[in-house]
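Researcher: I'm preparing a figure for a lab meeting and need a structural model of a single chain. I don't have an experimental structure, so a prediction will have to do for now. The sequence is pasted below. Please return the structure as tokens so I can convert it later.
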Amino acid sequence: MIDVRRAVDRYRVEQPGVTTWHCFSAGAYYDPDNVAFGRVVACDEHILAPGAGFEPHGHAGVELVSWVLDGTLAHWDGAGRRHLIQPGHAQHQVAGAGIRHAERNASSLEPLHLVQLAVLADEAEPAYAITCPPLPLLSGRFDVLTRCRGHVAPGALVFLFVGSGNFHVDGVDLTAGDSVRAAAALEIDGDGELLVVSVET
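Model: Understood. Here is the structure written out token by token.
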């Protein structure tokens, strides 16, 4: 059995220069039946207007993965890092006991489209990396499938999010913004960008 969540059913939030769609309970959209899937506690799709972004804020007890679909993400944090993240590379942050960072659309002309995921993590030491997937997580793995004909076999639980394109998962048609939660091997066929998070329970 798979649990398919459609893009239209996500929670939408509008802020100045930022539109966000939440796959899980967030902010004013508290849903006690949709707080997490295993260790996955957030999957947020953002559209940032030119120059718009998120002011300095904190995270703790999670690892964060940012995947840019279109545009350039500017990141800076309390450790003094300043980086630009573009399509094809994942930004991975382990928050540990606490980090502070800010993120913004690096362009003054074009919008930025990205997806950010949060996975619960017990690691106490913060860490930072920019790398190409697949990416090992503290309690799982993150990957992006662009052309898939075959099976995904999760360690325990698997969360899928369609960033772009069209995919068929166990016979179900999925388009951008759709997501899947499952606890079994999945047969996948499609093209685009399919974000895959496999986690322990």
